[in-house]
Write a structure and sequence with these properties.
This protein is α/β, with parallel strands linked by helices and 205 residues long. Helix content is 35%, strand content 17%. It contains six helices and seven strands. It has helices at residues 2-19, 48-61, 79-92, 104-114, 126-135, 189-193; strands spanning 25-30, 72-75, 97-98, 119-124, 152-157, 162-166, 194-198. The protein has a seven-stranded mixed beta sheet with strand order 3-2-4-1-5-6-7. Strand 5 (152-157) and strand 6 form a beta hairpin. Helix 2 (48-61) runs parallel beside helix 3. It starts with a helix and ends in a 7-residue tail after the last strand. 32% of the residues are buried. Residues 177-205 have low confidence and may be disordered.
């Protein structure tokens, strides 16, 4: 019951946020957990935990807007970005677009020029998310994304609105099951959902 309620609260919060932004919205997410480290395999597939995380990501983003959902999905040629995007892409009948995110200027120029006013999901890597967000003037103070960190999504609009949301604030280290011992009251959820914000007041008006 609690995990279901958590995703309901999260989905409603995201829907309100996106509906209030009549502009291009880009959701950046690092690929999910992999079977092997990058030192062992330059193109590892998702682990069982990573597959579970990709499904939960799809559960969250499938109905992210009260009117529409994600309009386009960008990945690169790596198995881990493609597999992370697959559950949502399948549900929405979207064929992900493969581009090189490290060509930051060209990458962001294409998204902003070809998908104006849309919601775009970019599944990418920890070492490039900050550069992509800076390109949108979202923030220059993004925490370092560790190699074993897979929880956060980064939502940026083309007018500089920026928020980071922890999708799994109560998950333990070995699974994505909600750890009921990690919180005492449901009222703690909302502060955990939005923990870094730079832009107009989210609750203004």
């Amino acid at each position: 019951m609690l995990p279901i309620l958590f995703f309901v609260v999260l989905s409603v919060s995201l829907a309100w946020f996106l509906e209030s932004q009549a502009t291009t919205t880009i959701i950046f997410v690092k690929h999910a957990d992999t079977e092997l480290s990058l030192e062992e395999n330059s193109d590892p597939s998702l682990s069982i935990l990573g597959i579970e995380r990709s499904i939960l990501l799809a559960n969250t983003l499938q109905d992210i807007d009260v009117i529409a959902s994600v309009d386009e999905i960008y990945v690169d040629e790596t198995a881990r970005t493609i597999q992370t995007a697959e559950p949502l892409a399948s549900r929405l009948d979207i064929s992900p677009i493969s581009r090189n995110p490290y060509e930051v200027d060209d990458f962001m120029r294409e998204i902003l020029s070809q998908h104006k006013g849309k919601i775009i999901l970019v599944v990418t890597h920890s070492d490039i998310i900050s550069d992509l967000i800076v390109e949108l003037h979202g923030s220059k103070n993004i925490p370092i994304i560790e190699r074993d960190e897979f929880d956060n999504i980064y939502i940026v609009t083309d007018n500089g609105f920026f928020v980071i949301i922890d999708l799994f604030p109560f998950a333990d280290n070995d699974s994505l099951s909600i750890n009921s011992a990690s919180f005492q009251d449901i009222g703690l959820w909302l502060p955990e959902l939005v923990f870094l914000y730079n832009g107009p007041e989210i609750l203004s008006g």
